[in-house]
Design goal:
11 strands, globular
């Protein structure tokens, strides 16, 4: 394994080139060569869906959307043609990127859309998909336009359509713009939304690979994951497996670094790069200040203190060992000037706004958390607030809801209070309303009763 040695950009290799979105430039750089090779091999019998799936499995590719589930293994969950009968298989490219601090896929979408399309074409061949969709957040207008333009170019070149390049393979790709809800990044809520319904997560099982879009087998893959598929077919599974920290964390990875660093942006490096090396790529902590905390995998990941993240390999297992979550590698850096209670309150505001309202613990719990946190940072907190916040958090997460949104919402609250409790207590000690000792739960209960009576549960 080349391991963690610096490698030339792979996923970002074409960024910065003039009109990197145009198909002519993509083809001139070797784009669609693998797609044409697979199509030709499909006719001769050299390439089969099983062979391509085995290649992705052998590469060790884990999903880049956050869960980190092995991509090739996920594909094998789709029932065989004998078992699914006449039901079609669908591939959904999850481009609904919207969590605070997460912006890596947007770069690929807006700068190199054909890389995504080729990854989708290859994945569609492996899964016997005839119609694939790209689900993109509604606000990403330019991204949707670029993807649609790229699809039109691919059709014009004969890389999409019916009997593509005389191979007997058919494939259509459609861009579907969502309504701008964070929950639609969750795969079953995405499926519901694609079907034209409200973006509510589904209870699993059945899992989408068995019963997804319109009750048909469906695979949902992230943008970056599908781009990796293209490069695995280009260069081979051994090459991909040779990049990264170990056999469970393989390949190049995009890291979206934001917050208090000198050069926020998207950085490509072998997965598992040490924290200090990644921070150096982003120019270090701004102004030479000390590092205070890091949220390593998007705002839903438990924050780590400077001491906890020191020397940590930035990959799925490295971050999990530190009791946080790698997620989509959206890294939010906070320096010594950060007011943690206010930062946690700001994150809580996002989750309270974005809860889909389907499950009571999440629907009611996220506004509770926000209300109490606001009370604290506004100088109206009381001594019992912190324990009550933790109590409510524990009653929201750990499998109490259909999806993991509630777990995402409570992670920054629990980690913030647990690791920086003194800062919260300092706010409470300075409370300007010492008489504000009415039990918080009675206020909240009254508010819920009012909402219930008014039929506002939504």
């Amino acid at each position: 394994m080349s391991g963690l040695d610096t490698i030339p950009p792979v996923l970002l290799a074409r960024l910065g080139k003039p009109d990197s979105r145009a198909i002519d430039g993509y083809v001139a750089d070797g784009g669609y060569a693998s797609w044409k090779n697979v199509l030709a091999g499909a006719k001769s019998g050299e390439w089969t869906p099983a062979k391509l799936t085995d290649m992705v499995k052998a590469s060790g590719l884990r999903g880049r959307g956050g869960a980190g589930f092995p991509c090739g293994l996920k594909w094998t969950f789709v029932p065989t043609k004998e078992k699914r009968g006449e039901k079609p298989v669908y591939l959904l490219c999850n481009a609904d990127e919207s969590e605070p601090g997460t912006f890596k896929d947007r770069l690929l979408i807006e700068q190199d859309p054909h890389q995504i399309l080729e990854g989708m074409m290859l994945a569609s061949f492996a899964l016997d998909v005839k119609h694939a969709y790209i689900y993109i957040r509604g606000e990403m207008v330019h991204g949707a336009e670029y993807l649609n333009a790229a699809i039109a170019e691919a059709h014009a070149k004969g890389f999409l359509g019916t009997d593509i390049l005389g191979s007997g393979v058919d494939l259509t790709i459609t861009v579907h713009r969502g309504a701008g809800a964070y929950i639609c990044g969750e795969e079953t809520a995405l499926i519901e939304s694609l079907e034209g319904k409200r973006g509510h997560p589904r209870i699993k099982p059945p899992f989408p690979a068995v019963s997804g879009v319109w009750g048909c087998p469906t695979v949902v893959n992230n943008v970056e994951t599908l781009c990796c598929v293209k490069h695995i077919v280009d260069r081979g599974a051994d090459w991909f497996k040779g990049v990264g920290r170990n056999e469970k964390n393989t390949g190049p990875k995009l890291y979206a670094v934001s917050g208090h660093v000198e050069k926020p942006g998207v950085y490509e490096a072998p997965i598992g790069i040490p924290w200090e090396q990644l921070l150096a790529m982003a120019g270090g902590v701004r102004g030479g200040r000390k590092l205070k905390a890091v949220i390593p995998g998007g705002s839903s990941a438990p924050m780590l203190t400077a001491a906890e993240i020191a020397g940590i390999p930035m990959d799925f297992d490295g971050i999990a060992a530190a009791k946080s979550m790698f997620g989509s590698a959206a890294i939010i850096v906070m320096d010594e000037t950060t007011d943690i209670p206010k930062a946690v309150t700001n994150i809580a505001k996002f989750y309270a706004h974005e809860s889909c309202g389907q499950c009571t613990p999440c629907r009611e719990g996220t506004p509770w958390l926000l209300k109490m946190l606001r009370r604290i940072v506004n100088g109206e907190g009381k001594k019992t607030d912190l324990d009550l916040l933790l109590q409510i958090s524990n009653q929201m997460g750990n499998g109490m809801t259909i999806c993991v949104f509630a777990d995402a919402a409570i992670a920054p609250v629990i980690s913030g209070i647990t690791k920086f409790r003194g800062e919260f207590e300092a706010y409470i000690e300075k409370s300007t309303k010492p008489g504000f000792e009415t039990a918080a739960s009675s206020d909240i209960t009254a508010a819920i009763a009012d909402r219930t009576a008014a039929g506002m549960h939504s």
